[in-house]
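From the shared-data thread, chain only:
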Amino acid sequence: MSVDNEQIAPGSPFTVAGMRPATEPPEARGVPRDGVRLMVATPAGVTHAVFADLARFLQAGDLVIVNTSATMASSVAGRRRSSGRPVTVHFSTALSDGTWAIELRPGPRASGPIRDARRAEVVELAGGGLTLLDSYPVAGVIASRLWRAEADLPEDVPAYLAAHGEPIAYDYVPGHWPLETYQTVFARHAGSAEMPSAARPFTSSLLTDLVTAGISIAPLTLHTGVSSPEKGEPPLPEPYRVPEATARLVNMTRATGGRIVAVGTTVTRALESVTEPDGRVVAGHGWTDLVLGPERPARVIDGLVTGWHEPGASHLLLLEAVAGRDLVAAAYRAASREGYLWHEFGDSALLLP
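Structure, as tokens:
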């Protein structure tokens, strides 16, 4: 473990020049899940550790909130009926009317989406197909990245994906890894198109360390959609559920002086969606379109466990809403200098403003 007394300079710029994507799970490099690097960033400076050290940086009485959403095998091969060209379908989110939000790509590891899809177009899948109904989440958008689609399949979509799908992967991960590689230790409720990856480094052993140190853990669920928005594109509406017991624990922790530490942007978004202006949390479920940022800072989250996001992404604004721009910028400068890895198999940060 090393300490870097990075000064938190107001208005300091972001840099990612020294960072690079993690191209495979840490286990493939001989590193356990909780052996990835962990940067702890506070106003006092930056500390470099490993994720297994997490309990050292939290305190008895703190509450860690985790996401129980499990990852689906959301990528399926298909063919456009109009042209006969192969496509990859990314099933993003089950919508309340029984349709699905999907993304079409020209190949399984394509760097970007198809932009020339049209309403009423049919995408053929093994044993069935999809009919594109309209752009999503806003109807009538030309060259949309996402579409609302009706499925005509021999079984419901989750069962179909379990039989025919594979995990969504992008071009920076050249290998093929089983679905278990994309699950967190908390995964219980299937529904996420991609892994809520901030929780990936947690292990049963680390959870034991946290509990024996007097740190509590509470669940919520938010099913995340495809995580490839364009720069400046807001996060998609996502379904969530915050249980009564979790809301009660959050309020109790705050009343007794403990900190609320969210594991990931999904947890932050769900919990802040049920937080009143005075900081009181109420149980709830539904769909959230909350966008955290300078105009809507976090009300209840005191710390955040997170992976690393590209500058310009909406997730980065959420980090700033919790930790402040200067602290986040200092963390990124240190991560760039030390060559941290980003994306779902990468290194981690604990931001404690």
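Residues 2-71+177-351 form a domain with the QueA-like fold (CATH 3.40.1780.10).
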